[in-house]
Fold this sequence. Notes:
Blueprint: E1 3-11, E2 16-22, E3 30-37, H1 41-55, E4 61-68, H2 75-82, E5 86-90, H3 106-119, H4 130-162, H5 174-181, H6 187-218, H7 221-230, H8 238-248, H9 257-263, E6 268-270, E7 279-282, H10 288-301, H11 311-317, H12 322-344, H13 349-369, H14 381-387
Parallel strand pairs: 1-4, 4-5
Antiparallel strand pairs: 1-2, 2-3, 6-7
Helix pairs in contact: 4-6, 4-8, 7-8, 8-10, 9-13, 10-13, 12-13, 13-14
Amino acid sequence: MNRIIKIGMDVHSTNYTLCAMEPTIGAEERIFGEVQVAPDYKEIIGFITSLKKKLGLNNDYSIECGYEAGCLGYTLYHQLTAAGIKCVILAPTTMLTQQGKRVKTDKRDAYLIAQCLCYGGYHPVYIPTGKDDSVKEYLRMRDDHKIALKKLKQQINAFVLRHGYQYVGTKWTIRHITWLKKLQLDPIYRETLNEYMASYDEQEAKVERFDKRIEEIASEACYKDNVKKLGCLLGMRTHTALSLIVETGDFARFAKGNIYGAFLGMAPGEHSSSTNLNRLSISKAGNSHLRRLLVEASKGLCKGVVGYKSKELRSRQKGQPTEVIAYADKANIRLRSKYYKMIRHGKKKNVAVAAVARELACFVWGMMTGNIHPASTAGSSAPAVSQG
């Protein structure tokens, strides 16, 4: 019989803690080694080599390593895989952990990861292609600059307010920026605001340059068709569509749209017992970046008249197959109607937007897997969406 050795790894930038275990049924777990090593994949290979000698393992065995998703990203996975060692990355929110009060140490964490590997108490993280991962990093870099720009705007608004000036009207228009540059301030105050405005102009130019580059990437053959399909949905601009594509990877790995929504942490939680029903907010257990983008898209989607199609939306839909446009129109009407219906029934705005975002995720899944026909199994798109 083939022997299986699982190695749980608690990894940090400063050290790796390893725990080698063999799964057993109806007996005590067999731990073959626990060690802390330097943060280098070669140390893991050395540990595996010494383990083989210690146990006298031949070819009738398999070794699998695993670590929790975190600061190292996919680097360690790729290094071990290139060395011929099977490796998985565990999604933290899916791992089975001990209940009640627990002691947390690196050694204990490595042991718990090894347990999850042995008995299947986890879901593996999807490993993107090198191309998708590089595009994802570029998109997230752009978002970091956008956040920095937002903070800079807040700092400028706070500065002028502290000195007795308050702009009446829509901020960060050409008129508002002109007003800021013409404010009569004392010399040092004026110099301070000038430095703020120089940083603002620089950051704004950077974000604009990044957006142009993202448009270029989205027009590449491997992304173009899918980006244009998602663009038929309200609130789904190029940046959001491309982010969903590269960070999700293979949409077909989700059996239904509501499962994809749960993967993004948009499924509602529940804490019920006996006859007591207690519904909770969304789990927020999945990809926080995609979840935020979908919520932002839903905020834009939830404005306007049900059934109305702007010139911009018509332009994005131009040239797409009839069935794709019909599916997108059905989604746009349904989601807007749902938002207004929830608001009329007294739901808070944020709750309604989150519900719309979850259902938008279902429609995205349908679009990307081709389940856009009412008679098809997953379109079941309609039932799957309503369940989501």
